[in-house]
Amino acid sequence: QVQLVEFGGGLVQPGGSLRLSCAASGRIFSINGMAWYRQAPGKQRELVAAVTSDGNTRYLDSVKGRFTISRDNAKNTVYLQMNSLKPEDTAVYYCNVDLGYRDYNMGTAWGQGTQVTVSS
Description:
The chain is built from no helices and 11 strands. By secondary structure, it is mostly beta strands. The radius of gyration is 14 Å and the shape is globular. It starts with a strand and ends with a strand.
């Protein structure tokens, strides 16, 4: 089994910054993509940012230029640096890891979620 543990959520004022981290542990043989999703109350979950095993990234349009996703493969950890936070960024943020090697997908693991609240 693979477990993802998230840290870094909290309360911040508009324009502030937070850094989320997510560390994977357990039965990890190979990791393809790592990503951050978020879900606000009453809203559908959306992909915020993703990073491939070789460091290529993509972002939700609304966070481009403000958020940066990165990973430390040696630590099996993915980060999300969030700057210039807006109230609409308020959500529970979930770490996601695609387990596998290239086109061999071995499953998906999710973090427990961490609350990010941007006050107005």
